[in-house]
Amino acid sequence: SVSIFFAISAIISFGYIFGMLDVLKYGIYLLFYFGIVLLLFFVFKFQTKMLKAMKSVPFIVFVFCSVIYLYFMKDAHLFFWDEYSHWGAFIKEMYYFNHFYDASSVAANLSYPPGISVWDYFIVKPTGFHEGSLYFAYFLILFSSTLIMYEKLSFKQIHWIILVFITQMMLFADFGFGFSSIYVDHVVGAVFAGLILSFIDEKFSIKDLYLFIFPMLALSLIKEAGFVLDLFFLCFVFIIHIVNTSVEKQISYLQSIKNNKK
Predict the structure, then answer these.
(1) Which of 38, 125, 151, 226 is deepest in the core (most CB within 10 A)?
(2) Is the pTM above the cut of 0.85?
(3) Phi, psi at 113, each rounded to 5°
(4) Greatest CA separation found in the chain?
(5) CA angle 199-179-14, nearest 5°?
(6) Contact 139, 130 (CB under 8 A)
(7) Residue of 245, 87, 62, 244 lying closest to 168 (CA atoms)
(8) Neighbour count for residue 259 (Cβ, 10 Å)
(9) In the chain, count of helices (H) and strands (E)?
(10) Which residues, at least 6 apart from 116, have a Cβ–Cβ distance to it below 8 Å?
């Protein structure tokens, strides 16, 4: 589950670099087809581990929900004001002109970073432009950000899977537009939650902080507020590190006292 979230973050980060180098179209095609080749390589090279991962609750839930969502939203069209004024316009211009939106764009809010549009571009450029595909792109990044909530579950715990799913849907509905818009604010919140959940659930330490470069970069590229949330995440990591270090010292001290008494 973490690998899907990290992979999407890496795509946004590398896609942005390709865009800045003015080779957005070719860079995205490279990422798309290289990703397919890399996936096939891992499937054949690490069959046992990959098979185990594909049988896991997070993977099956993610694939099942993605297929269902794509089926029902494939013919959807943009509806909200901001989707027409800039978010939809950004990706349409990128799709047809193969570069980032600039001062010549007809869209509003040109100061917004292009991170989420890069992810949209990655989805629609190789497959063809459909407005329903934009919603699907948003679904993938939103759902993958909180997919780790299923990490410790098995199919014997079906009641917990249902409860987590309901909780997930309620959170997206209460703190955003669910999966029915291409607004960005709730995406920022979901990616930030993905950072926190990934660090806690996978028991990363401060030494593993470099692994979060792509998710943190992607967060700041989606919207400017993401940079502030990156700082909050770093503060969270350092606080956890300080607390854990203090607890370990206390345990070590108590253990030494106990040994001395013996």
Answers:
(1) 226
(2) yes
(3) -65, 155
(4) 79
(5) 50
(6) no
(7) 62
(8) 8
(9) 12, 0
(10) 12, 87, 138, 141, 182, 184, 187, 222, 223
Angstrom distance (rounded) from CA 6 to CA 212: 8
Report H helices in 84-224: 88-97, 115-127, 131-145, 158-174, 185-201, 213-222
CA separation for the pair 190, 5 (Å, rounded): 11
**Within a 10 A sphere around the Cβ of 41, how many other Cβ atoms?**
10
pLDDT in tens, 58-106: 999 999 999 999 999 988 888 888 888 889 999 999 999 999 988 888 8
| Alpha carbons 12 and 18: distance in angstroms, whole number | 10
Tokens of 43: 């499937």
Reported confidence tier of residue 252, pLDDT bands at 50, 70, 90: confident
Q: Is the distance from CB of 5 to CB of 140 less than 8 angstroms?
A: no
Place of tokens 């909780």: 167
